[in-house]
Design a protein that fits this description.
The longest helix has 22 residues. Helix content is about 25%, strand content about 25%. By secondary structure, the chain is α/β, with parallel strands linked by helices. Bound molecules: pyridoxal-5'-phosphate.
Length: about 325
């Protein structure tokens, strides 16, 4: 199958770029030093490649992701790095499942749902989940009284991972990790899980890094000084060319995560406007109706979640089709 035969818009994954990204990451953080986050690609086919690169423990954001990974035989060590109430869905799975908890209520939910292992989720600066660092020891004691195994702590410096200034990223990561390491002293256990793509080589205090975007990348992360290539593009067809100098292709808000801003485009085209099913752009190279163009998403996670499948491509050839089988909740 050739790329030109695909129905557009379609998600393309460049085979050489993803091989480069997986190889670069596994050389920097081999085996258990990385716990890849599947939320970035939601695909067991891609997770299997990560396992092949030596990473057999995974991070998930939703119960559906844990269920899908377990069903695919990738459940050796799954961390649900998120607070959940309906833990019962997790108890019968053929997988080792560890759940993040940050309150008495989520510890109670884990115990009720027959979860065996937890991490104490600590807030290290991002205004999202996580207990106050000084509460972590108390929550760990409570979890142990409820017969939960406490494997350690997790935190996520999500407000730091995207900073373009490497010096600032480093300084703030050290501050965040000071809080997490302090909490870990009160909690115990072997695991200090933290980090993302932007801090994969900066966060040296975590025992494991939870990066996910590195595999496919996006144009927001491409602005940083990272050794990963943009493997993900949205293939789109030119559907209209205006006499006033702009052209329109058939990708839009419904095929692109837009929370990190407008996408980029190959071919020297510049994006003017994105609406539901259209991108209006200024052509670099001249275009005609029917031409195929490549759109570079600004944020990988929500982009992938809009699509049912990704196509692995090399040159003009489609090598494989990967279902986005971990979509949903
Ligand atoms: C809990 C958690 N850990 C790690 C990550 C790392 O992701 P990324 O590779 O996109 O930096 C995320 C992303 O949002 C996250 O929510």
């Amino acid at each position: 199958v050739k790329i030109a035969e695909l129905t557009t818009p379609a998600l393309l994954v460049d085979a050489d770029a993803i091989d480069h990204n997986l190889g670069t990451m596994s050389a920097a953080l081999p085996a258990g030093r990385l716990r890849p986050h599947v939320k970035a690609h939601k695909s067991t086919a891609l997770a299997r490649r990560q396992a092949g690169a030596g990473h057999r423990a995974f991070t998930c954001a939703t119960i559906r992701e844990v269920e899908g990974m377990a069903a695919a035989g990738l459940g050796e060590d799954l961390l649900l790095a998120n607070e959940v109430i309906d833990c019962g869905r997790l108890s019968g799975l053929d997988a080792r499942v560890t759940v993040a908890v940050d309150s008495e209520a989520t510890i109670e939910a884990a115990a009720r749902g027959h979860i065996k292992e937890v991490l104490i989720d600590v807030n290290i600066g991002l205004p999202r989940c996580g207990c106050a660092p000084e509460q972590a020891g108390r929550l760990a004691d409570l979890a142990r009284r409820k017969r939960l195994e406490v494997r350690g702590v997790m935190g996520y410096e999500g407000h730091v991972v995207g900073l373009e200034d490497r010096g600032l990223r480093q300084e703030l990561t050290e501050q965040c990790m000071g809080l997490l390491v302090g909490a870990h002293e009160d909690v115990g256990g072997e695991v200090i899980s933290a980090g993302g793509t932007g801090t994969f080589d900066i966060n040296t205090q975590a025992s494991e890094i939870q990066a996910g975007s590195y595999a496919l990348m996006d144009s927001a992360y491409a602005r940083l000084d990272l050794p990963f290539r943009q493997a993900l593009t949205v293939l789109s067809a030119v559907i209209s060319v205006s006499g006033s100098g702009y052209a329109v292709c058939n990708a839009g808000l419904k095929s692109l995560g837009m929370d990190h801003g407008n996408p980029g485009m190959d071919g020297g085209h510049s994006v003017y406007l994105v609406s539901d099913e259209h991108i209006t752009f200024g052509p670099g190279d001249p275009v005609e109706v029917g031409d195929l163009v490549r759109v570079l998403p600004a944020h990988v996670d929500p982009t992938v979640a809009y699509h049912e499948r990704m196509y692995l491509v090399q040159g003009e050839d489609v090598l494989d089709e990967w279902p986005v089988d971990l979509r949903g909740w």
